[in-house]
Amino acid sequence: MPRRAWRVTALVAMVALFALALQRMDLTRAWAELGTIRAAWIGAALLCYVAILPLWATQWHLLAPPAPSLTRRRMLEVVAMTSSVLNTTPMFVGEATGVLLLATRAGIGRGAALSVLAMDQLLVGLAKLVVLSSVALTVALPTWMTSALISLLVAVAALLIALAVASWRHADVARLTDRMLPRRFRGRLTAFGPALAPLRSPARGGGALLLALAKKAAEVLAILCVQRAFGLSLPLSSAVLVLATLNVATLLPLTPANVGIYEAATIVAYQWLGVSAEQALGIAVVQHLCFFVALALPGYWWLAGAKRLTPTI
User: Fold this and answer.
1) Residue 303 and residue 78: Cα distance in Å, rounded?
2) For position 9, what pLDDT does the model report?
3) How far is 155 from 279, CA to CA, in rounded Å?
């Protein structure tokens, strides 16, 4: 209940601030900005966002232990449907769906699926740290972004230490959990540590990290394409700044698909860059729509086209 109350309070505050900001904008001018969009650049932005899915699937295929039914196409299917749920449901539903799909459709078991998700979250955190650090090297960060960077650094370091211990000392961890946990949880956690093998392999771990950075690079390119669609010729650092602001604002997803939060964060970033509030609003709406179409709709298309989704284990 306290967590729910905090989320509701934060959501109400965000909506109130967003509504107050809208009152200060010329919405007629903001709507007119949408009429100046260059369609070719929007198509390029969609392609950049869509490219995230195969990169993500390759990353998970690299992190997952071998399984007879685990093909790159199957992993792309799992990633696409996981992305759809992540971008349309409340917090933690998408993560739980990803574990379930990895265990059933990919056929790697729930313990190994949990390890893939844990390593994925670690890599996402590391990639976000790279983005925020890149911004810090070019501009003076505001206090709130500096605080977020420090908090993220602490969280990623803690997760890295925990996963490193679980990976390198998995036998000791398994013996400890056998004494502390009920029998029904032991098998899953026993598989968790050994499945963290990519952390013990520079080739697999390093490759997965490069893919995580490639996903962020695709997002930066998509943001640049949306800028060009609105006739803006801003430097590469501007797109990195926008992405860094979004990474901070969406650390805790308070709304499904971060509706409202995404737009507010994008507007803040562009106003910091000197873009008018009306044009920033148009960019934010179009950019979020491109993101949603590219990363949420393919999974539902895949789901609708499948005759059945039966478990493979």
Assistant:
1) 10
2) 55
3) 35
Q: Which residues contact 123 (CB under 8 A, 6 or more apart)?
A: 59, 208, 209, 211, 212
What per-residue confidence (pLDDT) applies to 19? Answer: 54
The Cα–Cα gap between 280 and 31 comes to 11
The beta strand positions in 8-82, using DSSP E, are none
139 DSSP assignment: S
Q: What is the mean pLDDT of each run of 10 residues along the chain (313 residues)?
A: 52 52 51 70 96 96 87 92 85 85 88 92 95 87 83 93 84 59 59 84 93 97 95 92 90 72 89 86 90 88 60 44
**Nearest-angstrom CA–CA distance, 282 and 10:** 24
C-alpha to C-alpha distance for 97 and 90, rounded to whole angstroms: 12
Alpha carbon distance 116, 110 (integer Å): 10
Question: With contact defined as beta carbons under 8 Å apart, do 249 and 80 qualify?
Answer: no
Length of the chain: 313
Looking at residue 311, its pLDDT comes to 46
**Amino acid (one-letter) located at 301:** W
Collapsed DSSP state (helix, strand, coil) of residue 132: helix
Q: What is the pTM of this model?
A: 0.82
**Contact present, 240 and 131 (Cβ < 8 Å):** yes
Cβ pair 195, 111 in contact under 8 A: yes
- The confidence score (pLDDT) of residue 310 equals 46
Residue 301, token pair as written in the block: 């298309």
Give whole-number Cα distances, 308 to 73, 217, 237, 302, in Å: 16, 35, 45, 11
Residue type, 172: D
Residue with tokens 């699926």: 113
Q: How far is CA 41 from the centre of its chain?
A: 23
Of residues 244, 230, 240, the one with CA closest to residue 276: 230
